[in-house]
């Protein structure tokens, strides 16, 4: 049922982020099949699989995710990817995600979700996101003109 699917995604996401070996291996296998078009992940498993492979991934993993984002034909999938990019853990890759947030690849109204994902991904991500917001405050403020998105950005 619907609630079981939600619970499954939640549990798998937590196990994957924690580095549970079997979950990590299965997520990597399923992600590889998804990227290669062999077996497309169901929508309810995409976020937990994406979070797992990003949390334990490298620059190649991030590049693959950004490629999936670019190729996505549905905004829902783009948003799903944008929300999980903050799971990446290497400092230089966190910076790459933050730079991506302000790129033309991300709709202005979705930039806050990317930055929020980084802030919520780890303590290191939270510090990097806060520095990024401070360093880019003028651009962000001008982009959102004091509207609800700027207040949401500050909250995250």
From TrEMBL:
<dbReference type="Pfam" id="PF11838">
    <property type="entry name" value="ERAP1_C"/>
</dbReference>
<keyword id="KW-0645">Protease</keyword>
<dbReference type="GO" id="GO:0016020">
    <property type="term" value="C:membrane"/>
</dbReference>
<dbReference type="GO" id="GO:0043171">
    <property type="term" value="P:peptide catabolic process"/>
</dbReference>
<comment type="similarity">
    <text>Belongs to the peptidase M1 family.</text>
</comment>
<protein>
    <submittedName>
        <fullName>PSA aminopeptidase</fullName>
    </submittedName>
</protein>
<dbReference type="InterPro" id="IPR024571">
    <property type="entry name" value="ERAP1-like_C_dom"/>
</dbReference>
<dbReference type="GO" id="GO:0070006">
    <property type="term" value="F:metalloaminopeptidase activity"/>
</dbReference>
<dbReference type="GO" id="GO:0006508">
    <property type="term" value="P:proteolysis"/>
</dbReference>
<keyword id="KW-0031">Aminopeptidase</keyword>
<dbReference type="GO" id="GO:0042277">
    <property type="term" value="F:peptide binding"/>
</dbReference>
<dbReference type="GO" id="GO:0005615">
    <property type="term" value="C:extracellular space"/>
</dbReference>
<dbReference type="GO" id="GO:0008270">
    <property type="term" value="F:zinc ion binding"/>
</dbReference>
<feature type="domain" description="ERAP1-like C-terminal">
    <location>
        <begin position="2"/>
        <end position="155"/>
    </location>
</feature>
<dbReference type="InterPro" id="IPR050344">
    <property type="entry name" value="Peptidase_M1_aminopeptidases"/>
</dbReference>
<dbReference type="GO" id="GO:0005737">
    <property type="term" value="C:cytoplasm"/>
</dbReference>
<keyword id="KW-0378">Hydrolase</keyword>
């Amino acid at each position: 049922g619907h609630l079981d699917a939600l619970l499954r995604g939640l549990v798998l996401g937590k196990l994957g982020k924690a580095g549970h070996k079997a979950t990590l291996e299965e997520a990597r296998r399923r992600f590889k099949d998804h990227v290669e078009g062999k077996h497309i992940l169901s929508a309810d498993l995409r976020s937990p699989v994406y979070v797992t492979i990003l949390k334990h991934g490298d620059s190649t993993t991030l590049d693959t995710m950004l490629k999936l984002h670019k190729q996505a034909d549905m905004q829902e999938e783009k948003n799903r990817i944008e929300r999980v990019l903050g799971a990446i853990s290497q400092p230089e890759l966190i910076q790459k995600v933050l730079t991506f947030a302000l790129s033309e690849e991300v709709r202005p109204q979705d930039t806050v979700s990317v930055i929020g994902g980084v802030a919520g991904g780890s303590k290191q991500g939270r510090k990097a996101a806060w520095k990024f917001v401070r360093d880019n405050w003028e651009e962000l403020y001008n982009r959102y003109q004091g509207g609800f998105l700027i207040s949401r950005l500050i909250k995250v």
